[in-house]
Amino acid sequence: MTGRSLGADSLRADPTRLDPVLAGLRESVEEGVVPVAALAVGDAGGPIRSAAFGPRGTNVAADSFFFLASVTKPIVACAFMQVVESGLTGLREPFASHFPELAGGDKAGITPWHVLTHTSGLTDVDVGLIRRKRPSAAQMTRMAIEAPLRFAPGTRWEYCSASFYLLSLLIERLTGTAFADYLHDRLFAPLGMHATFDPRGKGRAIIPVAGVDADKPLIRWLLLRYMARAQVPGGGLFATLYDLLAFGAAILSPREGPSGWLPLSPGTIEEMGTDQTAGLRGEVDGVERDIHFGLGWSKPTLMRDSPGSTRAVAHGGASGTRLRIDPDAGLVFVYFTSAWAADRKPEMEALAGVYRALSA
């Protein structure tokens, strides 16, 4: 998945091609379609253009912290694949080899491959329960392990965030490093990212998520404190536009250093972006359909009518976030809004506009 294309080079040579895209996002905010909107476009060489828009008087900026929600997943997937590359475990080695509580039953055959492709059959933790009870990381892990399987592993696709707790726990057991520390030491610090499970006290604006009953500052503070403690590997990170540009640039152009490839070897990055679930069915937005998923990544051009190459990978979050990396276009696309179940139309229009600018 390495390299930079003429498309990205053309945008770098003339970033004003993105002016119509940015104007459209500004208009979406002014008309109240979304509360805020932030966009960054880059390539393997780094940022090309970025901007953030909010209502007059707000402090939203390109370096503000946004709640990533499920865009956390491909980042955690990348960290886990580092552990696989180190030889400490295998992608298809059952979790039961390390977790005795999974041995001997119908969950004994669940592997990291199943979690990364959402084919484990594990039951997700209800979002409403999380809001009401605010369970700890250990409690959510236990719930994921103890709940009955919804289907035999590998026979069907069903999106599951709670299963990513198995990955974070395995990282800790195999490396002897706390999960959040591992992410910081092996990904964030080397890549110059400020991503974190706890954005408090970092000197950056934290953009609140609309639509989660957190309008009062005290409630937002309590939620931030809970998220910092829970360290949800399937959707708990906060990050800036530039953080995801740095991550995407490293995926497009990994580098080899004294400690190995950063973030991963080209072969592993390619494997993660390869369709792993062809032939499986699952339900998306209430519709039964064929599923195309990589390891921690969706395959957007195979799943729906979407611009870009078949090698493109992407992931979105329920807070209105999106990261897309297209190796054939040499493109990193990052879009943030900050509203639960946000209107996706501004995002889709921005994405289409970026691809039009590539070929202008």
Q: Helices, strands, pairings?
A:
Layout: H1 6-13, H2 19-30, E1 37-43, E2 46-53, E3 66-67, H3 72-85, H4 112-116, H5 127-133, H6 137-146, H7 164-175, H8 179-191, H9 217-230, E4 238-239, H10 241-252, E5 255-257, E6 260-262, H11 266-272, E7 281-284, E8 287-290, H12 300-303, E9 313-317, E10 321-326, E11 331-336, H13 345-358
Antiparallel strand pairs: 1-2, 1-11, 3-4, 5-6, 7-8, 9-10, 10-11
Helix pairs in contact: 2-13, 3-7
Q: What does it look like?
A:
By secondary structure, the protein is of the alpha+beta class. The protein has one domain: Beta-lactamase. It contains 13 helices and eleven strands. The protein has helices spanning 6-13, 19-30, 72-85, 112-116, 127-133, 137-146, 164-175, 179-191, 217-230, 241-252, 266-272, 300-303, 345-358; strands spanning 37-43, 46-53, 66-67, 238-239, 255-257, 260-262, 281-284, 287-290, 313-317, 321-326, 331-336. Strands 2-1-11-10-9 form a five-stranded antiparallel beta sheet, with helices on both faces. Helix 2 (19-30) runs antiparallel to helix 13 and helix 3 packs parallel to helix 7. The two termini are 24 Å apart.
